[in-house]
Amino acid sequence: QVQVVESGGGLVQAGGSLRLSCAASVRTFSSYCMGWFRQAPGKAREFVAAINWSGAVTVYADSVKGRFTISRVNAKNTVYPQMNSLKPEDTAVYYCAAERSLAATPPRYAYDYDYWGQGTQVTVSS
Question: 4-19 pLDDT, tens per residue?
Answer without folding.
Answer: 999 999 999 999 999 9
